[in-house]
């Protein structure tokens, strides 16, 4: 992939493109991305994993240990198996051990440990994101389901284009984006960006850039990228909210691109960064500009791509459609 020949020129809002100083910076600095990716492993931030919180789980600890598969150490869920000598085993491991108990080497047979399944049913344990603020306590069998959806679960880094596995809360990720990915930070709810690419004939798959906006006490990620849509190269811009989907619905945004007396406008609700960059892109939930149109907007000799994207973020008055289903999420 080639990142160096794309630049974003941004100017403060309300400033005509010919006035004032512009900041020119590369789409992405490969070295910065590599550094960030390298760091990712050791940097799993924000107290993510956590295990079961101490005090609340204390009386259940020994039972909880019994519910750990002695082979893979994952929590066991029905059907829990056991050998004739009573050694327990999760169903995934059972299918792998060729009918031999891994503990005593006896034939395993097909015995379920109903007693342990029943004991598990009576257990109540705190959410594993207890230390991140989740106050909820769940029956053993519904805990896992909750944890996959828990609002306190850490976010993954919203930076696209690298396999960054950093997780954490929003303030941590904002610092991470700024320091490790060298992402541009802007304050304010309006923006005026120019995306410049010297050779628009070369549209590599997934060339992209990210800018972070801070307004209304929240953070938003503006993504801009070029990719192939079927056979056709397109440019796409969209906004993601650094927070949960329910909170994302409190905001709207518009994007506008144009020149030569034409313009395209997109208005939408930012998607939560819980939805991956790729998922949002593939659902086309943003401003999509065909290349021919993009070159037309660039004017001149079609040798250079120059898109001026202006945008605005605003807060919705108490959303009447809270709980309403979003397009592309309902199917
Ligand atoms: Zn197992
Ligand atoms: Zn055994
Ligand atoms: Zn929780
Ligand atoms: Zn990252």
TrEMBL record:
Keyword Transmembrane helix set for record: no
Domain of life the protein comes from: Eukaryota
Keywords, in A-Z order: Metal-binding, Transferase, Ubl conjugation pathway, Zinc, Zinc-finger
CDD domains in UniProt: RING-HC_SIAHs, Sina
Ranges of residues in domain RING-type: 69-105
First-level EC class: transferase
Gene Ontology molecular function: any one: ubiquitin protein ligase activity
Catalytic reactions on record: S-ubiquitinyl-[E2 ubiquitin-conjugating enzyme]-L-cysteine + [acceptor protein]-L-lysine = [E2 ubiquitin-conjugating enzyme]-L-cysteine + N(6)-ubiquitinyl-[acceptor protein]-L-lysine
Domain SIAH-type: 122-182
Record InterPro entries: 7-in-absentia-prot_TRAF-dom, E3_ubiquitin-ligase_SINA, Sina-like_RING, TRAF-like, Znf_RING, Znf_RING/FYVE/PHD, Znf_SIAH
Alphabetical GO biological process terms: protein ubiquitination; ubiquitin-dependent protein catabolic process
EC number(s) recorded for this UniProt protein: 2.3.2.27
Gene: LOC109718196
Entry-linked PANTHER family: E3 UBIQUITIN PROTEIN LIGASE SIAH, E3 UBIQUITIN-PROTEIN LIGASE SINAT3
Protein name: RING-type E3 ubiquitin transferase
Functional pathway: Protein modification; protein ubiquitination
Family as reported in the entry's similarity comment: Belongs to the SINA (Seven in absentia) family.
Annotated Gene Ontology cellular component terms: cytoplasm
PROSITE patterns from the UniProt entry: ZF_RING_2, ZF_SIAH
The UniProt record lists the keyword Transferase: yes
